[in-house]
Amino acid sequence: MTDAPQLYLMTPAGAQASALGPLLSEVMDRFPPACLRIRGGAEEDELARLADMVREIAHARDVAVVIDDHIKLAQRHGLDGVHLTDGPRGVRYARQELGDDAIVGAFCGNSRHDGMTAGEAGADYVSFGPVGESVLGRGVPAPLDLFQWWSETIEVPVVAEGAITRELVQQLSTACDFIAIGPEIWAEDSPTEALAALWM
């Protein structure tokens, strides 16, 4: 693990390709992410358009692209893998379907046990969250000491996500490999400036 976490960028949930493209390019040119994740929430046709647009923008910048849950869509549109939102349950199946070279990540809430199970099943990374106060999900934050313990004990890379603030970025800077940012910036007038205010 490096001393400073890398940026893991998420698209807005339910985003439309035509509106997102220019904003995404601007953000990525200023803050190159290690990975770009397409969040769900759109209809199949719009997700397909989004996948093609995001892949083109990201791959031109040597950035890998994963998509929430949709294994077949990832295959069809040449994405690099999937981010499973239901913990470790689908990891083995996703690996079997996508092959050894694909990225398979798993969101595990605040459960150390689910994280370890996902890692043992072959996940390339595990994400925990929300880190900050949020009413989403079960509403129980993933504690900072979970990331500290994980980074000291487990080799599988760990991602922090959910209600990220600048203070949390600073607190997590030595405790995780990636920090996922998305909802925190896309509702702002300038997502690029919003990210500049959050990121180190």
Layout: helices, strands, pairs:
Layout: E1 6-10, H1 17-30, E2 35-38, H2 44-59, E3 64-68, H3 71-76, E4 81-84, H4 91-98, E5 103-107, H5 112-121, E6 125-128, H6 144-153, E7 158-161, H7 166-172, E8 178-181, H8 183-186, H9 191-198
Parallel strand pairs: 1-2, 1-8, 2-3, 3-4, 4-5, 5-6, 6-7, 7-8
Helix pairs in contact: 1-2
Which tags fit this structure?
200 residues, alpha/beta, eight-stranded parallel barrel, 8 strands, 42% helix
What do these coordinates show?
This protein is α/β, with parallel strands linked by helices and 200 residues long. Helices cover 42% and strands 18% of the residues. The protein has nine helices and eight strands. It has an eight-stranded parallel β-barrel with strand order 1-2-3-4-5-6-7-8, surrounded by four helices. It is globular and about 40 Å long.
Give the distance, in angstroms, between the N- and C-terminal Cα atoms. 17 Å
Question: How are the strands of the largest sheet arranged?
Answer: 1-2-3-4-5-6-7-8
Biggest pleated-sheet summary: 8 strands, parallel, barrel
- Which structural category fits the helices and strands? alpha/beta
Evaluate the radius of gyration. 16 Å
| Unreliable segments of 5+ consecutive residues | none
How many helices? The count is: 9
Q: In percent terms, what proportion of residues is strand?
A: 15-25%
Instruction: Look at the structure and give the mean pLDDT.
Output: 95
**Rough outline:** globular
- The number of strands is 8
Fraction in helix:
40-55%
The secondary-structure element order is: EHEHEHEHEHEHEHEHH
